């Protein structure tokens, strides 16, 4: 278990002829979460990791899924993965839903 913090900062300005409009807004959201994680060995060098959580609080619902394929080297692991995060809101900064997702490439160092 734990918590997720989301900071939304909106800064929009427009100039149309002699008219100027500007919207500035900030939201700070804290949500409690619970999740599960694991690791499955494929070979002595290759393994997958996975993680998922769900929670709520100031947002109506938030959840996350993560998975990666990892390759062990001598002191580091090469990581290739994908993460998806989602928030559902009642009415926060005029948003109903926000999602962030995409692939990742990284190196995991063990000490």
Q: Care to describe what's here?
A:
The protein is mainly β and 111 residues long. 0% of the residues lie in helices and 85% in strands. The chain has no helices and six strands. It has a six-stranded antiparallel sheet, with no helix packed on it. The protein is elongated and about 65 Å long. The two termini are 25 Å apart.
Secondary structure elements and pairings:
Elements (H helix, E strand, L loop, with lengths): L1 E15 L2 E23 L4 E12 L3 E12 L3 E17 L2 E15 L2
Short description:
This protein has 111 residues and is mainly β.
Task: Please state the oligomeric state of the protein chains shown.
Answer: single chain
User: Which overall shape is indicated by the principal axes computed on the Cα atoms?
Assistant: elongated
Helix content: under 10%
Count helical runs. Answer: 0
Strands in their spatial order, largest beta sheet = 1-2-3-4-5-6
Low-confidence stretches: none
Structural descriptors:
mainly beta, 85% strand, 6-stranded antiparallel β-sheet, 111 residues, 6 strands, 0% helix
């Amino acid at each position: 278990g734990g918590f997720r913090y989301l900071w939304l900062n909106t800064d929009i300005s427009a100039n149309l002829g002699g008219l100027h409009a500007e919207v500035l807004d900030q939201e700070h959201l804290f949500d409690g979460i619970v999740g599960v994680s694991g690791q499955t060995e494929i070979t002595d060098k290759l393994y997958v990791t996975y993680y998922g959580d769900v929670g709520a609080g100031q947002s109506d619902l938030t959840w996350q899924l993560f998975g990666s394929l990892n390759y062990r080297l001598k002191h580091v692991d090469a990581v290739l993965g994908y993460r998806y995060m989602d928030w559902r809101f009642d009415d926060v900064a005029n948003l109903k839903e926000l999602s962030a997702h995409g692939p990742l490439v990284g190196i995991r160092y063990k000490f």
